[in-house]
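Hi all, posting the design record for the shared folder.

TITLE: backbone redesign
STEP: 1 of 1
STRUCTURE INPUT:
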């Protein structure tokens, strides 16, 4: 399987340091392939001025695009000098996430890497509206890189859904594990852990049913989840010591375990749905993501179709 051979790096226009490009080069050196540095830019003032003719506005746009292209080339100078294959593409577009997704669709990128900001080391990663749009709508995996060094012997933590009766979850769980193992094997033999969360006993049931035994209920639920985790890990020969079935809400269990393990990245699935709900990740995934303090790799299920189309050329 050719894994992540055509990486799209979304450049941060606000700073000279580019952690996303660093991570992309790190992956490229181990996986091969090519990197495209991508920057959508837009300046409303150029569009509004009545002093310029349409031709003059186009010329100004081209000038800005050229300036930013050279600026990116300077950021990538050391990598280019070392022989890393990096393409640079700057486009004029007023909706960055649409520009990124259209680039993915047009040029068949298999991974998007973008930097996510933190206020300080003790706080969770802060996601922008563009980040959320990409996580919800980008058809290929999205890797959100925090602007902190990768931890020494950083682990990969795969968040799996062991409780759902919906048929799409089992193949998505398997896809998450398969892709993470393939990536980890190529990148320093990174240790891969799996985590699933199971719910605590609903208090209202314990109150309303006097004969209800919460400990029996908890044991039964935990047992179901342990069996599901065993069924998931065994085909991949993952040792039981690398799997974690924890009581609590996923949005608390997963970030807490990631911090305990000093994980470098959490891998989770973002469910693609049809119709109006296609824009949403699902509440659980969004709450988990909001609390993470490490990198995030979000992977869509097979068959996901982005709501963004490739035929919007008016901003190019």
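Okay, here is what came back for every position:
SEQUENCE:
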């Amino acid at each position: 399987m050719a894994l992540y051979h055509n990486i799209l790096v979304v450049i941060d226009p606000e700073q000279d340091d580019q952690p996303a490009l660093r991570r992309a080069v790190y992956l490229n050196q181990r996986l091969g392939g090519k990197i495209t540095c991508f920057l959508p830019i837009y300046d409303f003032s150029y569009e509004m001025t009545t002093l310029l003719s349409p031709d003059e506005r186009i010329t100004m746009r081209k000038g800005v695009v050229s300036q930013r292209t050279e600026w990116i080339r300077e950021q990538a100078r050391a990598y280019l000098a070392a022989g890393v294959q990096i393409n640079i593409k700057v486009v004029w577009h007023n909706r960055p996430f649409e520009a990124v997704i259209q680039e993915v669709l047009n040029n068949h990128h298999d991974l998007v890497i973008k930097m996510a900001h933190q206020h300080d080391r003790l706080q969770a990663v802060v996601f922008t509206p563009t980040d959320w749009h990409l996580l919800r709508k980008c058809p290929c995996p999205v890797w959100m890189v925090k602007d902190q060094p990768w931890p020494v012997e950083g682990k990969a933590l795969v968040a799996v859904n062991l409780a759902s009766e919906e048929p799409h979850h089992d193949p998505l769980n398997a896809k998450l594990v398969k892709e993470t193992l393939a990536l980890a094997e190529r990148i320093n033999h990174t240790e891969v852990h799996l985590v699933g969360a199971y719910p605590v006993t609903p208090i209202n049931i314990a109150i309303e049913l006097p004969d209800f035994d919460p400990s029996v209920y908890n044991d039964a639920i935990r047992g179901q989840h342990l069996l599901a985790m065993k069924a998931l890990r065994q085909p991949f020969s993952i040792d039981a010591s690398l799997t974690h079935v924890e009581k609590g809400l996923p949005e608390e269990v997963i970030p807490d375990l990631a911090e305990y393990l000093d994980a470098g990245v959490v891998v989770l699935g973002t469910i693609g749905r049809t119709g109006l709900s296609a824009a949403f990740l699902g509440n659980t995934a969004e709450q988990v993501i909001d609390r993470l303090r490490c990198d995030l790799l979000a992977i869509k299920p097979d068959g996901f179709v982005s709501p963004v189309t490739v035929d919007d050329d008016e901003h190019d």
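COMMENT: Residues 1-147 form a domain with the Rossmann fold fold (CATH 3.40.50.12370).
Let me know if anyone wants the other runs.
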